[in-house]
């Protein structure tokens, strides 16, 4: 926990030393990185040695741990400006998140992460556009992140609009059309409208699963990293009523 966020020396040194130790232990299995982070200073900037010591599974666990803090209303309150200065020369985040633009699903808040921890792409309906894939190719292949999370959410306006075939304007219609394959792939029980809550939530999950599949199907760079065990791509759904994120199996 962040016991003294303004102490710029000892806690960060402790965290770096721990992560260096974790890196020395083959696989890090014998010593839980997340357990170590809980004992060290979660507010310390996530620097290159920490990134190198983190496995894809551990990156996902860090996000799960952060969401548990958020959902328990126990988010950290760190020295964000200090973290920005510490990562100004070089950023080494551990994960990428593709999320909706929804005002309630901000990844850094939902996963309780700090400056320099995440690459974030946001577009209505959390769609894996060419620009998003290109961004994540950079974030993983060049900048070394270990995990990608596609974060859908409950009560998604983009999904509702697509289900209702909303026709607001050419650009928005094009965006909503990109969710149509998820609608077509989701078994329909009851009416096809945004009033059918179960259907809307089911489409949101299908949409996330299709986005995860599209990451490797449409990006040889990401596919190669996954095949090599250097990257993990997972889907997740965020409940805007409870604040809890459920990772999809
Ligand atoms: Zn949304």
What's the CATH class, please?
A: Alpha Beta
Beta-strand share of residues: 5-15%
Number of strands: 5
Widest sheet: strand ordering: 2-1-3-4-5
Number of domains: 1
Oligomeric state of this protein: single chain
Q: What ligands does this structure carry?
A: zinc ion
Taking all Cα atoms into account, the compactness measure Rg is 19 Å
CATH topology: Beta-carbonic Anhydrase, Chain A
Form type: globular
Q: How many alpha or pi helices?
A: 12
The CATH fourth-level homologous superfamily: Carbonic anhydrase
Helical fraction equals 40-55%
Task: Give the termini distance in whole angstroms.
Answer: 29 Å
Low-pLDDT windows of residues: 1-33, 35-40
Named CATH architecture: 3-Layer(aba) Sandwich
Helix/sheet category: alpha/beta
- Average pLDDT works out at 87
Architecture overview:
The chain has a single domain (10-247), classed as Beta-carbonic Anhydrase, Chain A (3-Layer(aba) Sandwich). Helices cover 47% and strands 11% of the residues. The protein has helices at residues 10-24, 33-39, 48-52, 56-71, 80-86, 107-110, 130-142, 157-163, 170-177, 180-184, 197-217, 220-227, and strands at 95-99, 118-122, 147-153, 232-238, 245-247. It is globular and about 50 Å long. Residues 100, 102, 153, 156-158 line the site of zinc ion (ZN).
Question: Which terms summarize this structure?
Answer:
249 residues, disordered N terminus, alpha/beta, Beta-carbonic Anhydrase, Chain A, binds zinc ion, 11% strand, five-stranded mixed beta sheet
